[in-house]
Amino acid sequence: MDPLLVVDGANVVGSKPDGWWKDRAGAAVRLRDGLAGLNTEGIKDLPGPIEVVLVVEGKARDTPPIDSVRVERAPGSGDDTIVDVVAAAEPGRRVVVVTADRGLRERVTALGAEVRGPSSVPR
User: Fold this and answer.
1) pLDDT in tens, 71-88
2) What is the DSSP secondary structure assignment for residue 94, as one 8-state letter?
């Protein structure tokens, strides 16, 4: 079973002050596209193949999925959706969440996930 990489879209986009706030939906699409090769390449200490999930919320909710990146649209809180994705993972599956959000880090590590910072993925 391939490891699962869950990316906190709002947090990762917000970690790079490149004007993303002017076009939140466009920033989410750019992030999704930057994640595209990770399903085969993996990230540092998490070699591919991996399943990549991008969690989006708010104005970025309309971001469409692509073959290599599953997009989960949060109906409310992106953090709650990330926790749901982690909780739904098969027992024993390696799960890595990409976020800098301290509260979310605590919630997902309590479920057995590992955490990496936003700079661990292309942004």
Assistant:
1) 999 999 999 999 999 999
2) -
